[in-house]
Design brief:
The structure holds 2 protein chains of 2 kinds. Chain A is an alpha/beta fold. Helix content of chain A is about 40%, strand content about 20%. Chain A has a 5-stranded parallel beta sheet, sandwiched between helices. The longest helix of chain A has 13 residues. Chain A is globular, with a radius of gyration of 13 Å. The two termini of chain A are about 15 Å apart. By secondary structure, chain B is α+β, with helices and mostly antiparallel strands. In chain B, helix 2 runs antiparallel to helix 3, helix 3 packs parallel to helix 5 and helix 12 runs antiparallel to helix 13. In chain B, the strands form 5 sheets. Chain B has a 5-stranded antiparallel beta sheet, with helices on both faces. In chain B, a hairpin with a 2-residue loop joins strand 9 and strand 10. The chains are: A alpha/beta, B alpha+beta. The interface between A and B is medium-sized, with 25 and 24 residues.
């Protein structure tokens, strides 16, 4: 069964690239253009990984992560946070113990897929 | 099939290749420049990454192999030598071919093979320390991993079981579990980890693969030691995690020995003084990875900074075509409306004219490309030619930001390359000879460019031997083109040098003298309506100057008539016009006119085209081109016209008194006169 991944990223081009990279690898992907849209996808259905941007309208990455962690259905869901290099250290600290890893943008497809694969194990 | 993303990638990748080439050439000058080495590594890394993403597996693979070599160079494990440099430069060409979809797979495999032998050579070298990225074919290495996961590691979405599984997949291993007050299975079920682990692992995968397992782990959660001797378990760093009794040490050594008999070569625990040396801790932090990402980020930003949009040349050509048609169409309207006196119409027509001109200028500007795009190619050429000929050349450039029409740049490439070949082959002397002449060993080759008026000038200077006029003369005589008893001026000899089929190379080298000489350069440059000028000083060097029009297709011309036919003369060539009676013009037999104290020969076009009758009053047009002056006599001037230049068909190439054709405002066709050719 293919793994279900939620991708939350407000920047269209980035999201499209991420989604196409993942789809090509055979993952089934649900897209969300902001935190709010993403949160609504967590309605109890089977989700194996959340990849989210930090800076998003309506609900940002931090709020989304908090929201998902507070739900009973996904306590140990792997979460990958997309960050820019500038903010990386700060975010890593802020989310310590809550997320699986930070991915620095820009990233290369093969590195990205490696991390995704690992997070889905 | 190429989609848009791919096309974009190819263009970007080509840019990376150009940068890479540039850095490599810099490295040739200073092979130890750490910044350039890092640049090379970074470009290869970028290329590898994006190529994989866009399905160019062959590019990815080759770039990956090269990246391996340069990561060694960067880490000081290998010296960059000429072999590596040549190999990489060659690889740049192959990568370019692969991007173009050419079948260069064999070449790529060859390079990968060469790199393979490089690798082997290093792995065999006694100084070569064990390296992480040994890959699957590598030797077995032993590691001890101390794994102390956070109690709440599951909350981070990390499955500990998966990590342990992954370690097991790497090779043969032995787990030693500590703190098992709660059974480990139960800890897993409770999602709360209290145990910690010593893991002895023997793998062929290398350190990098081992570290990769812990990608999501925090630095303080794991430590990897490489087992290089039996002393590891009693060493100080190991003590920080656990103090082992003699029996426990023995127990671990047994584990190691069972996993790989002979890894420790029967080493027994040795006296304490060698303890420190025995230890090769593999610290987990990967600073350089971060730097790398920062750097690749920088590249992205750099390319975005100037806000460029790349457009397919096809689209541009289409735009230029439409604009050109519009220019013609506007002249046609002008022509049709010539009788209309209504001020509103006249005003509107003037506005239309202004706008068309603006549109034309902007459209042409888009096509302008800085000469710099040729720089890398030229440098490459200089490098290989000077190497082949055993000459040393310093290449200086200036004004490479001068812009020229894209098609001009393309047309210039071959002649420029040829001129440079010539300069190095015939101009610049061998280092020993230069020393004898009190010149620096390194020959100087200057390439610069500037704008002046409607023209772009490109100069190539060398401080070599200068043109050998004696040899040109001897050759000319030998070929029956010159008369041995006659004295020729340098100018005449230079003209001879540039006439078709003339080459002075004594032997046919691989570099020049392949049947192409300055004559071909001259022909190529003339084809884009440019000129070549040569000045030279024996023993001191030569200067070749190319004078080129800014654009190729639009021309300001004067329309003249002869009998009922219209002809065009490029306005840039016209010095002066005046009317004169036929009788006065033809009164002197010498066929010359007097202008500014000079006698200038004239040609009557009526006569030239075989007409018998002449009008009473004729118009004299003085032409000045390349320091040559000539006057032509036509019936009358019709007016000024901006025309779109169309080259003549091959069939008409022999009629070289015409340089091209154009369509007039009324839709009829007119030929563009090449006045200088009329002379002959």
């Amino acid at each position: 069964m293919s793994k279900n991944i939620v991708v939350a990223e407000d920047f269209n081009v980035s999201r499209k690239i991420i989604v196409s990279t993942l789809t090509k690898e055979g993952y089934s992907v649900m897209e969300a253009a902001d935190g709010n849209e993403a949160a609504q996808l967590f309605d109890g259905r089977s989700i194996d990984l959340l990849i989210t941007d930090y800076n998003m309208p309506n609900m940002n990455g931090a709020e989304l992560i908090q929201k998902v962690r507070s739900l009973n259905s996904y306590p140990y869901l792997p979460i990958l946070l997309l960050t820019t290099e500038v903010r990386q250290e700060k975010l890593q600290l802020a989310f310590d113990g809550n997320i699986t890893a930070c991915i620095k943008k820009p990233f290369e497809a093969q590195d990205f897929l490696k991390i995704v694969k690992k997070a889905l194990r | 099939m190429k989609n848009d993303f791919q096309q974009e990638f190819i263009e970007e990748a080509k840019q990376v290749l150009t940068n890479l080439e540039q850095s490599l050439l810099q490295l040739e000058k200073n092979s130890a420049d750490p910044e350039e080495i890092n640049n090379v590594y970074r470009y290869l890394h970028t290329l590898k990454g994006s190529a994989g993403m866009f399905g160019f597996q062959n590019v990815e693979k080759l770039a990956h192999e090269l990246e391996y070599v340069y990561s060694d160079v960067r880490d000081g494990l290998r010296q960059q030598d000429d072999f590596i440099l040549d190999l990489t430069l060659h690889a740049v060409d192959v990568l370019g071919d692969l991007l173009d979809g050419k079948d260069a797979g064999k070449e790529a495999d060859k390079i990968i093979n060469d790199i393979g032998s490089l690798k082997e050579a290093r792995d065999l070298a006694p100084s070569g320390e064990a390296r992480g990225a040994n890959g699957k074919g590598g030797n077995e290495q032993g590691f001890v991993i101390i794994l102390k996961p956070e109690k709440q590691i599951f909350k981070r979405g990390i499955k500990l079981q998966a990590i342990l599984d992954e370690i097991q997949e790497l090779g043969k291993c032995e787990f030693i579990v500590h703190n098992e007050s709660i059974p480990f299975e139960k800890q897993l079920a409770n999602k709360e980890i209290t145990s910690w682990f010593e893991i002895i692992l023997v793998t062929k995968m290398g350190q990098d693969a081992v570290k990769d397992v812990f990608l999501f782990m925090k630095e303080e959660e794991y430590t990897v030691f490489q087992i290089t001797s039996a002393d590891l378990f009693t060493s100080e760093p190991y003590h920080q995690f656990i103090q082992l009794s003699e029996k426990e040490v023995e127990n671990r050594l047994t584990h190691v020995n069972t996993l790989v008999p002979g890894l420790l070569k029967g080493n027994q625990p040795r006296p304490a003084e060698s303890k420190e040396a025995a230890l090769v801790p593999v610290i987990t932090e990967t600073d350089d990875d971060q730097d790398l990402d920062k750097d690749s980020d920088k590249i992205v930003r750099k390319s975005k900074k100037s806000g460029h949009v790349s457009v397919a040349t096809q689209k541009l050509d289409q735009l230029i075509n439409i604009v050109s048609e519009l220019v013609i169409f506007r002249s046609e309207i002008d022509h049709l409306m010539a009788d209309v006196q209504k001020p509103e119409v006249v005003e509107a027509l003037e506005k239309l004219e202004r706008l068309t001109l603006k549109l034309r200028d902007s459209a042409f500007n888009i096509r302008l490309v800085p000469l710099n795009v040729l720089n890398v190619k030229l440098q490459r050429l200089i490098r290989s030619v000077s190497k082949d000929l055993g000459k040393e050349v310093e290449f200086l450039t200036d004004g490479l930001d001068t812009e020229l029409d894209r098609s001009m740049i393309n047309a210039l490439e071959a002649p420029l390359m040829h001129m440079i070949r010539n300069a190095i082959d015939h101009g610049i002397e061998k280092p020993e000879e230069r020393e004898k002449r009190n010149k620096p060993r390194k020959g100087l080759l200057k390439f610069f460019s500037y704008n002046s008026g409607d023209h772009v000038f490109i100069q190539l200077q060398d401080d070599g031997n200068g043109i050998d006029f004696d040899r040109i003369k001897a050759k000319g005589i030998e070929k029956g083109l010159l008369n041995a008893s006659q004295v020729y001026s340098e100018k005449e000899l230079i003209n001879l040098m540039m006439s078709p089929g003339f080459s002075t190379a004594d032997k046919v080298t691989t570099v020049s003298g392949r049947g192409v000489g300055m004559d071909v350069v001259k022909k190529d440059i003339t084809a884009i309506r440019g000129d070549v000028e040569v000045s030279t000083e024996k023993g001191l060097g030569s200067i070749f100057t190319l004078r080129l029009p800014l654009t190729l297709t639009i021309l300001d011309t004067l329309v003249v008539t002869i009998s009922d036919n219209k002809y065009l003369i490029p306005i840039t060539e016209i010095d002066h016009c005046y009317e004169e009676t036929h009788a006065r013009l033809f009164s002197k037999k010498s066929r010359q006119i007097h202008y500014e104290g000079q006698l200038i020969p004239f040609i009557s076009l009526r006569e030239y085209f075989g007409h018998q009758e002449f009008p009473e009053k004729e118009t004299v047009i003085l032409i000045r081109k390349n320091d040559m002056r000539i006057a032509i006599v036509v019936d009358s001037i019709v007016g000024k016209l901006q025309t779109v230049y169309k080259p003549l068909n091959e069939l008409l190439h022999k009629a070289d008194c015409f340089s091209g054709a154009s369509i007039l405002g009324d839709g009829s066709m007119a030929l563009i006169l090449n006045a200088l050719k009329l002379k002959n």
